[in-house]
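Exercise 7 asks you to align residues with tokens for two separate proteins.
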Amino acid sequence: MDQYLHAAIEQAKLGLAEGGIPIGSVIVHAGEIIGRGHNRRVQQGSCVLHAEMDALENAGRRSASVYRQCTLYTTLSPCAMCSGAILLYGIPSVIIAENRTFVGEEALLVSRGVEIQLLQDRDCIKMMQDFIHNRPELWNEDIGV
């Protein structure tokens, strides 16, 4: 398994262990992880701390030229909010572990020139299926249902 995908999955597991939603993300620049994050909406009482947003927050203030050379890894297809942030900062490449449990704004990203790689990782699919089964109310809140 790719070390960056592994790091994103570890973030997802951390979120689950904290009582949150098991979605993780990392941002990679020049072979180095510059931001790690996991969905912390529950833990922080936040309406915006999805995994990708948390990873961006943890990457910190960087010039646009840095973000335009990054790859974002995420364990789940990015929602509209996170896709907007990807577009805003010009992140050119997104590796998605799975989209069987949720299809986000992949078409929008592709239409705007973002390269998408979809892996359909079995472990990520199972982790999300189990979470959605066990905590449907929390999942629906997270996706705005």
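Second protein for Exercise 7:
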Amino acid sequence: MVKRVVITGLGVISPVGIGQDEFWQNLIAGKSGVGPVTRFDVSEMPTKIAAEVNDFDPSLYLDRKEARRMDRFAQFAVAAAKLAVQDAKLELEPEDKDRVGVVLGCGIGGVGTFEDQKETLMNRGPGRVSPFFVPMLISNMAAGHISINMGLHGVSNTVVTACASATNAVGEGLRLLQHGDLDVCLTGGTEAPLTPLAFAGFCAAKAMSTRNDEPTLASRPFDKERDGFVMGEGAGILVLETLDHALARKAHIYAEVVGYGSSCDAYHMTAVAPGGVGAAKAMRNAINDAGLQPQDISYINAHGTSTDLNDTNETAAIKSVFGPNAKNLAISSTKSMTGHLMGASGAIELVACAKAVENDIVPPTINLTTPDPECDLDYVPNEARKMSVKATMSNSFGFGGHNACVVLQKYE
């Protein structure tokens, strides 16, 4: 028998707040986390803005020696996991730790460590390269560190599907719980891509906004004046449990996870398939998996990157799935505030969906002042909206044509 699965804990490290309360309040207030890049020199780069996590102190979550042996993306993940477990009031010691697992998404991994150690190699020689270089670099180490730190012996996996990574990870965590492999799963995603090399790569691809003089206005999904995405960093971790397990310990339930869909465009390395046909297939798969009809969905947290191709094709995909009802949907892109957290984006966006279901409030798409005629749906412009949110879907689409969607609904 397929088990029901619920969300009982939320942990966030983001450019608009650390901890789910600060994160959610700033989303609802329409606060942007975008500003000038402070971590490295961008004077010779066309883009000089990003959504940085400025107040993160790893020593609040990790032993200092331990933290030094972890890349920033792994530090984010462990911190968010601890916040999520604390929020869930989940006491791990009494649990059967063989039945508590971790499934994380990460698109890039320890690119900061890679750059640092390449400099060491070139300037100081191979003998000075850190013995921790490889363990700090590899993408799976965030999940590994969470499992090690918390003594969890269940499944510990990492999904790498570019910007769909975290949403795919939550979907795979859902399956493990539904089919009885785990009782509890810590799932979501993490990313720390704000490094000179990664930043320069996206600049070279001409993918990022150059609205450097107005950073807080730069990420503007679905707006006619958008000129590219804004890179961000951070992590989101959700505690998923089987319903029976959550009820037995009288846990607070934010929402029920009811559907997961995935697909591949099989079209191009970076470009979206015309009309968003692959994205539409993933959305249909998720709605069907949930046992719902398109008209049951109240709110979509869009991938909404603030790039021309994504926003128009995602709009087309929504129209193809929802038909005439697309006009009645509330849709927003929280990337307008957080920037694009790459492989972690789907995780913090699912946190936003869970909070929307819990509170019947939909966060806005800020900076939407000049609507694109090709993006003609209701994107909840500029102000949060109080409304009934019975079921919601989060969309994530990544390079390589990876598409992933997860559906949440109110627990009843």
